[in-house]
Fold these 2 entries.
Entry 1:
Amino acid sequence: MVDATTRFFEDLDRRGFEPLLAKTAGTLRFDLHEGAQTTHWLLQIDRGNLQVRQEDREADTVVGTAPRLFGELVTGQENAIAALLRGDMTVSGDLRLVLQIERLFPGPPDTRGPHHPFRTEAF
């Protein structure tokens, strides 16, 4: 079974282009820490063109958090800015890239409006 995080990154890679990021360029590495193990996801954005790889490379921005929390972010159960302010997520580098990518995360499951595909698949 594929988890919500893998589904999120695979969908971004399949998408290839995201209009919400058409004015954005940079690289983000997501370091998901669980004990001594860290899973790395590298997201390259070039004016909305997306490419995702699972590798540990230099990036403009590095986001660190627990896999559980990141899964909650991509299913709309948690808010990235709130997690950052609580200290549950760390960011080094260009914070603006985090603010841009945060727009791709769905809102809370009980909100009205367009539904993000990750939310329905996660339950």
Entry 2:
Amino acid sequence: MGKLVANFFISLDGVVEAPDQWHFGYFNEQMGEAVGKGFATTTGMLMGRKLYDEWSSYWPTSEDENLGPVMNNMPKWVVSSSLTDPEWSNSTVVPGDPDKIREVKEQNEGDLSMSGSATTVRWLLENDLLDELRLLVHPVAVGKGQRLFEEGQTVPLKLISSETFDNGVLNLTYAKDPNPPSNEFPGA
């Protein structure tokens, strides 16, 4: 059975939107190695409709000789209720049904990776489908943009691994905490 892993570039204030506007100044060799290591175990991609639309308009005509063929040939599953006939090679539509996502995980060996798709990741966490949440936390507060978690949403997570890069970026991996701590005041 495969593992479902979500990857995000994220700011200190939780923003994941438009990392192209704040991320690249922090990208270094350590971060490249971490991203490459995570991608090495990826055997398929899972994405929401919005990310599919963005990537399917870019990758098929990309001149990136290294990553382009990988992205175009890799199996891709798109969680969508409106997309019916995906045109991007090796793409399959999966309805937003937890059982269907479990079937995809069971049929896949290796990691099903996600990059972005905050709305889809929140839904996966709510339905106990996400195995790992990998965050590259950048030492910058962006101040605006979509955040990974919505206001009022509580998601208990358990830290699996952590590493600090020379540029101050934190490489953190979390899983959903099956036994979250009580929120009661000790001694009450």
